[in-house]
Amino acid sequence: MTETTETDAKTEQARPDHEVVIVGAGFAGIGAGIALKGAGIHDFVLLERAGDIGGTWRDNTYPGLSVDIPSPTYSFAFEPRPTWSRLYAKGPEIKDYADHCVRKYGIMPHVRLGTTVVAARFDEGADLWRLELAGGGTVTGRYLLSCQGALTTPSHPEIDGLADFAGHTVHTARWDHDHDLTGRRVAVIGTGATALQVIPEIAGRVAHLDVYQRTPIWVYPKIDPRLPRGVQELFRRVPATQKATRFVTTTAVEIIVTGVVHHRRVQPLVKAVERRCLRHLKRQVKDPETRERLTPRYGFGCKRPSFSNDYWRTFNRANVDLVTDRIDRITETGVRTVDGREREIDTLILATGFKVFDISFPIVGREGVELTAFWKQYRRQSYEGAAVPGFPNLFLVPGPYGNIGLSWFQMIDAQIRHALRVIGEARSRGVTRAEVSRQAHDRYMSWVERRMPRTVFLNGDCATANSYYFDEHGDAPWQRPSSVVAARRRSRSFPLDDYDYSTRVSAG
Ligand code: NAP
Q1: CATH dotted code for 6-153+355-439+478-502
Q2: What DSSP element (H or E) covers 244?
Q3: Would you kindly state where each structural domain of the chain is located, as residue ranges?
Q4: 89-132 pLDDT, tens per residue?
Q5: Mutate to test the pocket of ligand 1, among 97, 151, 253, 411 (most ligand atoms within 8 A of CB)
């Protein structure tokens, strides 16, 4: 650990526009703003490229959108909502919850909408981050919190002819509500957690639906009761009852996480979950051949599973076809598979997910090193999923091996606590730079390497899963290989001396 304090006449010049700049006004950015205010840091700005807050819950408005983690868990622990209409809230309710949090905690005055960051550079002479904005202008901040989310940039499949299609093409993350699907011939490409919600919702309206599946998804039955007025009233009057409900739903979600991160130890549990899913499939799909094609051939947890009571049974419908032949190309009028068959459509729905590892602008740290290029060359890595040596005063919410559990809110809670502890320490030392030491970072990454073989990613049968949890190096940097409980404990207890604290202001 080092500590250098140089007072300099130029300190005044080195004062940034804001103490903290947050990029992204989804739940992570909102949570960061609330936590900063709670810590007494009011000098922060939240930059958001879109015209509204809410991140993925603003962008995704497709039919059937709902959360697939129980709402008492998929929400801030400090801001329970007694009025969830059901256990798994619908998309608009979650967007409304985001609006509510922003209002209640006074975050909106800190938000700059329609502000796109095109680059962030660390100014080594002034210990601050300089963010370049689209259309000109800069914003500077002592600390940068990258809260850009993972489900931000829609992924368009690399399929020949996509641009030639003369009908209507829509990505699920950019739903076109003006395009009525009633009576249309529709194709959906993709069978992930999004498709699983869209398909049952539209199947009854369209004339015909072709579902192009490359990899089947594991589906667990969804226990999704309505939460009647009486229950909502109970939650409101006796908050402990909602806390208890959160405890139960969080424990249930944690069991799934255990199957992922401690896969080697709990294989019988994972196998039991798989059997439960297969029984569900058998009950839902009549035709054995269709059932066979819907059966995943990789271990549960290798890729994102989901919950649904109506996805699989949609394939019983006479107007729905499951197509598992590989797509050869899109033509002007339809989709052609490698067997030469072309199926005509007038609407193409891309349920093809997101570029989950993309950071939407270059982040340039000390000595001109750019973060994404660094990871491309040396593999994705970070200390505690939050910080990278060479990138002082930068916190990733989350970075590689930083996501915990299944609920984004658990990740937000832990990763923001991490950032705030370091920022608080730097402030109390009266310094302007906090950078994780190489040694601490390497120690964390060695721990990750030792833990990964226990996870489903290295231990399960993931070869055919085509999972976005894996990156181009074959690593699975999406998830921290530990339980939620352990990760939260760690965010409270990691040694603050794992960071070097210093002040370097321009002599110049
Ligand atoms: P996804 O899980 O990445 O699924 C994309 C689908 O598109 C996959 O089935 C994929 O096939 C297919 N695909 C991509 N390129 C293709 C190509 N060239 N040809 C054929 N198929 C192609 O994306 P998503 O369904 O949008 O879900 C993304 C994440 O959003 C989920 O994992 C989940 O975390 C989140 N989500 C959450 C909720 C919620 O309620 N909380 C709801 C929906 C989504 P392969 O599998 O073969 O790659």
Answers
A1: 3.50.50.60
A2: helix 239-261
A3: 6-153+355-439+478-502, 154-217+305-353
A4: 999 999 999 999 999 999 999 999 999 999 999 999 999 999 99
A5: 151
